[in-house]
Amino acid sequence: MRLRIPPPFVASMFAVLVWATNLVLPAGKVFFSGQTVMAVVLVVLGFTIAFVAGRSFRKAGTQIDPRNPDKSETIVQTGIFQYSRNPMYLGMVLVLVGWSVWIGNTFSIAIVWLFVWYISRFQIIPEEEALTAKFGADYEAYLGKVRRWI
């Protein structure tokens, strides 16, 4: 694996960038009816998806640390993993979107897209390569059946 930084730490750094964008580019500030409710729903949904995915890993008896996919014991394909190969990262994206809505700066959505690119390039793709090397055709079949994000 190329990346040694824990993904939750990466997401936290991008959350700081969302906040900083609001300070640096105040012209993007927006307010709308239901903004707080939408932000809270997105954050709760993101944490819930990530929690459910983590619980599925524990239930399957495989390790959860994505920096060491070679230590994975099984391919989790049930539950939420039937719909997304990366629900923990999807949860992080939803939390970042919710945080962006809460902050209320239109420019912050660019930071969320930057996170999606970064985590795809430096975490997900290397994970997929490692898991393909470990599980072979079984993992390739899973790749063909379930989308990367949603």
Structure description:
This protein has 150 residues and is mainly alpha-helical. The protein has one domain. It has 5 helices and no strands. The chain has helices at 7-24, 35-60, 87-103, 108-135, 137-145. α1 (7-24) runs parallel beside α3 (87-103) and α4 runs antiparallel to α5 (137-145). The longest helix has 28 residues, at 108-135. The chain is elongated. The two termini are 24 Å apart.
What is the strand tally? 0
User: Structural class of the helices, strands and pairings?
Assistant: mainly alpha
With helices defined by DSSP (H or I, 4 residues minimum), what is the helix count?
A: 5
Q: What gross morphology would you assign?
A: elongated
Sheet-strand content, in percent, reads under 5%
Total domain units:
1
What would the keywords be for this entry?
65% helix, elongated, single chain, mainly alpha, 5 helices, 150 residues
